[in-house]
ABC transporter permease (Rhizobium mesosinicum), 276 residues
Amino acid sequence: MKTIFLFRRPLVASSLVVVTVVLGIALAGPLLAPHDPLAINQNAVNQASSTQYLLGTDEFGRDILSRLLVGIRPTILVAVISTIIAAIGGTACGIVGAYSRPVFAFFVMRGVDIMLSFPAILLALLAVGFWRSGVVSLSVVIGIIFIPQFARVAQSATLQVIRQEFVEAEHAMGARYLRVVLRAILPNILSPLVVQATLTIAAAILLESGLSFLGLGIVPPEPSWGQMIGTARGYLSQNPMYVVWPSVCLAVTVLAINVLGDALRDHLDPRLRENP
């Protein structure tokens, strides 16, 4: 019997553990935090690691560990919601771009190409500048920004599927457009979309962290990893570990999600599977 692909690749198994732990912390972070992440202690400003504060304190004497445990929740929430928005909107655009009237498909995909021509961070900066910062606005903005990536993946997969005999059989039976999409096309393009979703979550985490780093993301005093990194820049000489902890957490989380995405792609695509 073949071994499950996760157990044949220790790096993938380790990444799965990391992602599971991060999701668990995102759900139960406030319960795990040893201190109030918003509580100010002027007598413990920029302290190093100690028995009371395991990872030290920030510029207001707040516990860095508690803020790390709580700060992952808004980041993960934004990443997941924005990925769902991007997946729904991008899949719809991609299917329309491959399986609709040529004129309509042309305008849809040219709109996708125009969005792809701009850097994601630039579009995000332009959008959040007109909206109030917060989880909801960030989720919508980032979700719209990543729609073109899903649209391209969905269009490419749909173009392959509509040439298959089972789609032609649906047409021969007089099936309507919506039935063909829901019964024949959508179930057969889910694999590349799932892979794209995992990669988009990692990209959304980085984009949200970048916006928070610039002060345009999660609103203080609510913590987020990107916001903590941005603030910690000004205290490198006083407390260098202040910037290290959120940076390491962010890097490890994004790396783990990307590794899982690559492994999922290899597993779902027979051409990329490793030989047993």
Summary: The chain has eleven helices and no strands.
